[in-house]
Every structure is written in structure tokens, then in C-alpha cells.
Design brief:
Residues 395-481 form the CAAX prenyl protease 2/Lysostaphin resistance protein A-like domain. It comes from Roseateles chitinivorans. One of its GO terms (molecular function) is endopeptidase activity. Keywords: Membrane, Transmembrane, Transmembrane helix. The chain crosses the membrane at residues 35-53, 65-86, 98-117, 137-155, 215-234, 246-266, 278-306, 318-338, 350-374, 448-464, 469-487, 507-524. There is one protein chain. The chain is an all-alpha fold. It folds into two domains: 23-267, no CATH class; 276-546, no CATH class. Helices cover 70% and strands 0% of the residues. The protein contains 21 helices and no strands. α4 (96-118) runs parallel beside α8 (211-229), α5 (135-168) packs across α6 and α5 crosses α8 (211-229). It is elongated. It starts with 8 loop residues before the first helix and ends in a 17-residue tail after the last helix.
Length: 548
């Protein structure tokens, strides 16, 4: 009796048996076989005509620009005819719905950056070159600029980007490879601008499929920049070279933002529009909080200067910390009053069990880290205070007050303000925690990042769970005092470690803080589980800082 699962011999000998080769790999190889010759032809012809060689517009004769434009159109027509490139009826049909708003936004972006950064350094009036002083000659000089931008879009977008998109089978990979290729052909000082402008024009080409639209946007970017730095249409730029270079970073960021805005416009949906509105409201809240912070600092500056001038028992550093504390407290209270941040009741909650437990453990972290990392240098019992601290009680207050004020000020800024706003912006408590910790570490010396960053994560996690700056301030103050007890501080001598050995324990301190962070989260989840399946505190409902 034969096996019913065995295939007949006729099936195995049939030449029409199924092809078991992976179709994905075969399809990609066929795509490369068809696309590589087209790409090499475009690059070879463009290289032969000198199109991809970086050269200023002033040194190119008009007949050569016309030759490039005609050659690009002829090559495009030929490749479409042999079906090496897809046919596109919208290629020479502008999309006014996106082109005109984008042109206005581009001009507003460049003008805003120039006026915002160098508004007092613009050299007015605008000077045209002597060779084009009359309006008719000046208008005629614009046409080479138009033709140059048009042929660039033919070669870079209609030919190169289309070929790379068809080669990879993905228009976004085609955009990325085109932008990288174009920027790599530019001089070192212009690669960043070439990359960002290629991304913007590539996104516009993907969405409009029109080289006329990309040409209009390219002119809108190039002409104002030419007026600012000087060029064929301006004998002297409105900005000096050094001032113009200072506005390049925000300009590049603005071009990328415009590219993102164009893509979001085409992908808009009710949910996306709602998310954009929420982000916009959060950004306005951030601007409002920052403006209130700066306004408070400006209005109270004379008061703090008077306190510093008296100089009785508070040092200037303590007064500066006090000023920062008051400036940070005002926007925190304003956001709490507007119900766009943690309430004052949450911020001032004591949480005695969590606070005492964390403080009791954190007080031993620096000593344990020193005993583990450098046991030979750890000298217990070497505490020696300076004589003023034992003779004058006000000196104790002067030594302790800066530590308390510094800890409270940092918790107000980094936890109650920055972490809350970032959590609201990204609609995620964990993202706000991580970014807030990075923001906290950025305000400390780089060599301290190995334990400051874990400390920021610990403080952020405690704040996320308790919403209390009282708890985080006590924890922060405990770690600061315990750390000062192990090495030389401003108000006391070297107690347990010499200054040379104080840096050796930093890695151990950071590791122990991470262990405490994980232990606190584990205990918090365990206690929440014992109370019932209602969910973790501050996770059962969206807090005020995440409310739309």
C-alpha cells in the first residue's frame, strides 16, 4: 500500500513544477537590473556636461544654462519613452495650493530669522550691482537665475530622484539617497544647506510631482538668501559674512520644519489635526512659562541686587539661587492655577513613608559607594568642621540655606516645570522623565554626568509617582549633603576622602542610584498591586499635566 503523502514521480519530473526561489529577492534583482543603467546614464551625462560640479551662478554663461535645461528635458523625454522612468503628466503643472503658502512661509521664515538674530545689523538700503542699475536690465538678469533653478530641478528631481526612487522601490529612500548624493557633491561649508534644501524640495516633489512647484520654492529660498549674503542680484549683502553664518543653524532647522509641515499637510486626518493642536497648545504653554520666568527675573532683579549689596550673611551665590527659585515658582504656580500642570496640593504633598524611606537609603549611598570603590581611602571618623560653623549658629544657616534653596530650585525647574511640560508635549510620562533627566544633566558639569543622570532619573521617577516636589527635594538635598560629607565642600574640610580620591567613587554612586531607582519602582508597583487592580497611582487617569 503506497504512502499517500509522497509526491508522484510525474510531478517531480514536470518542467512546470513551482519555482521555490524567493520572489522578493528576484524582484529586487530585476529592479536593480533595470534601474542601475538608467541611474548611471543620468550621472554620466550630468557629469559630462558639468552639471554636478559645484560652481557659482556668476561664472556660468547663459548659453550653458540653456544647454543644461534642454539636455535635461531631452534625456527626461527619452527615458520616459523607453519606460525607464514613470510618465508624469503633472511634471510641468504647478500645484498652487501648496506652492504659494509654502513660498510665503519660506520668505517669512528667512525674514524672521534675519530680523530676530541680526535685526540691528542689516545694512540698508539694498544695493544692486552697477551693471544692472536700470530696471529693464535688472529684470533681464533675473531670467538666468530662473533658468538655472529650473534646470537644477529637472536634473535633481525629475531625473535623479525619480531614478533613485524607482531603483529602490521606495520614494522616501529615493529622497534620502538624492539628498545625500547632492550634498556630498558640494563644498564642505555648503553641505548642510544643500542637504536640508534637498529634503524640502524632495518632499515638495513627492507630493506635487511638479518641477515648476519645486523651482518656485527653490527660487523663494535662494533669492532672499542671495540678498542677505550678496550675489548676482546684489552687489553687497544685507549681512556681513560672519553674521550670515550665525543664522545658518536656525535656517537649516526651519527648512526641515517646512518639509515636515508639507508632509503633515498631505497626511492630515482628524486624529492628526487634534494631535497637532495639542502640541501647539503645549508649545504655547512652554513659551508662556518661559516668558513668565524671564519677566519675573527682570522685575525682581533690583531687589536681589539690593540684597547682594548689603552682604550681611548671605553670599552672592545663595542670593542668585534664591532669585532663580522665585523666578521658577511663578510659572509653576501659574500653570497650576490654569490647571495645565500639577496642582499646588500635589506639589506640596508630604508622602511621609516614601520620603523617609528614600531619604534613609539615599543618605548611605555615597558612603557605600566610597567603601566599595576605594576602600583604602575611605577614612570613617575624620569629620572636622570649620570653626565658624561651631561658633556661630547663623553660619550654620548660611551653610545649609544654599543647599536647600539649590535643591528646591532645581526640582521646581526640572521636575515641576520641564518634566511636566515635556510629558504633556509627548503625551507620555516616561518620555518626559527621560528628557527631563537629560535636561537636568545638561546643567551640570560633564564629568559629573555619570551620577547626575541616574540622579535625574531617580528624581524624575519619584516625581512621576508622587507628584510631590517636597519628596524629591528632600531626596535631592540628602544626596547633596551626603556627597559633600565625603569630599571637600565650601563650608567644611575634607571629611572622609581627600580631594584626589573623590572622583573615583562617581561610577559606584551612579550605579547605586540606578539600583535605588529600580527598587523604588518595584516597591511602588508591589504596593499598588496589594491595594488592588485599580492601576498604579497617577496612571489610573491622565494627570493635569497631560490634559489637552
Amino acid at each position: 500500500m503506497g504512502d499517500s503523502n509522497r509526491l508522484p514521480i510525474s510531478f517531480m519530473l514536470d518542467h512546470r513544477a513551482p519555482n521555490f526561489r524567493p520572489r522578493f529577492i528576484v524582484g529586487r534583482l530585476n529592479r536593480l537590473r533595470r534601474g542601475v543603467p538608467c541611474l548611471l546614464l543620468i550621472l554620466g551625462v550630468g557629469r559630462g556636461l558639468g552639471i554636478y560640479e559645484p560652481e557659482g551662478l556668476a561664472g556660468i554663461p547663459p548659453w550653458r544654462i540653456a544647454e543644461w535645461a534642454v539636455s535635461g528635458l531631452a534625456l527626461l523625454w527619452m527615458l520616459i519613452g523607453v519606460r525607464a522612468l514613470p510618465s508624469n503628466r503633472k511634471l510641468f503643472r504647478p500645484s498652487f495650493r501648496i506652492t504659494i503658502p509654502l513660498m510665503i512661509a519660506t520668505v517669512a521664515l528667512i525674514a524672521g530669522i534675519a530680523l530676530g538674530i541680526h535685526g540691528d545689523k542689516l545694512r540698508w538700503p539694498f544695493h544692486r550691482p552697477d551693471s544692472i542699475q536700470t530696471p529693464s536690465i535688472w529684470v533681464n538678469a533675473v531670467f538666468p537665475v530662473l533658468a538655472f533653478s529650473f534646470q537644477q530641478e529637472i536634473w535633481q528631481r525629475a531625473l535623479l530622484q525619480s531614478a533613485l526612487s524607482r531603483l529602490w522601490g521606495n520614494r522616501w529612500l529615493g529622497l534620502a539617497s538624492t539628498a545625500v548624493l547632492i550634498s556630498s557633491l558640494q563644498p564642505s561649508g555648503q553641505q548642510g544647506f544643500a542637504l536640508c534644501s534637498a529634503v524640502l524640495l524632495g518632499v515638495v516633489f513627492i507630493r506635487t510631482r511638479s518641477v515648476l512647484s519645486t523651482t518656485a520654492v527653490s527660487l523663494t529660498v535662494g533669492l532672499p538668501l542671495g540678498m542677505l549674503q550678496g550675489g548676482p542680484l546684489a552687489s553687497e549683502g544685507l549681512l556681513a559674512r560672519g553674521d550670515f553664518l550665525l543664522m545658518k543653524p536656525p535656517l537649516l532647522l526651519g527648512l526641515l520644519s517646512l518639509a515636515v509641515a508639507v508632509e503633515l499637510w498631505y497626511r492630515r486626518s482628524p486624529r492628526l489635526l487634534q494631535s497637532i493642536k495639542a502640541v501647539a497648545r503645549t508649545l504655547l504653554l512652554m513659551a508662556f512659562a518661559y516668558a513668565l520666568y524671564k519677566l519675573t527675573a527682570i522685575l525682581l532683579a533690583p531687589l536681589w541686587q539690593a540684597v547682594i549689596g548689603r552682604g550681611e550673611w548671605m553670599k552672592e551665590s545663595a542670593v542668585v539661587r534664591m532669585a532663580l527659585l522665585v523666578s521658577a515658582a511663578v510659572p509653576v504656580m501659574a500653570l497650576a492655577w490654569l490647571r495645565r500642570g500639577p496642582s499646588l496640593r500635589e506639589l506640596l504633598a508630604l508622602w511621609p513613608v516614601a520620603s523617609l524611606g528614600l531619604v534613609g537609603v539615599a543618605a548611605w549611598i555615597p558612603a557605600i559607594a566610597a567603601a566599595i570603590a576605594i576602600p583604602d581611602a575611605f577614612r570613617v571618623g575624620a569629620f572636622t568642621s570649620l570653626s565658624p560653623l561651631t561658633a556661630n549658629p547663623r553660619a550654620w544657616l548660611g551653610a545649609a540655606l544654599p543647599l536647600v534653596v539649590a535643591a528646591l530650585q532645581e526640582e521646581l525647574v526640572h521636575r515641576a516645570l520641564v518634566q511636566s511640560l515635556l510629558s504633556r508635549l509627548f503625551r507620555s510620562e516616561w518620555v518626559g522623565l527621560v528628557l527631563g533627566a537629560l535636561h537636568f544633566a545638561a546643567f551640570h558639569p560633564l564629568e559629573s554626568a555619570v551620577f547626575v543622570l541616574p540622579g535625574g532619573l531617580l528624581f524624575g521617577l519619584v516625581f512621576m509617582r508622587t507628584r510631590s516636589i517636597v519628596c524629591t527635594t528632600l531626596l535631592h538635598l540628602t544626596l547633596n549633603i551626603a556627597t559633600h560629607l565625603l569630599h571637600t565642600a565650601e563650608s567644611m574640610r575634607s571629611l572622609f576622602l581627600s580631594p584626589d580620591n573623590s572622583d573615583a567613587k562617581r561610577i559606584a554612586v551612579g550605579g547605586l542610584i540606578l539600583v535605588l531607582t529600580a527598587a523604588f519602582e518595584g516597591v511602588w508597583r508591589w504596593s499598588a498591586h496589594r491595594r488592588g487592580p485599580a492601576g498604579l497611582p497617577n496612571e489610573r487617569a491622565a494627570p493635569a499635566s497631560l490634559a489637552p
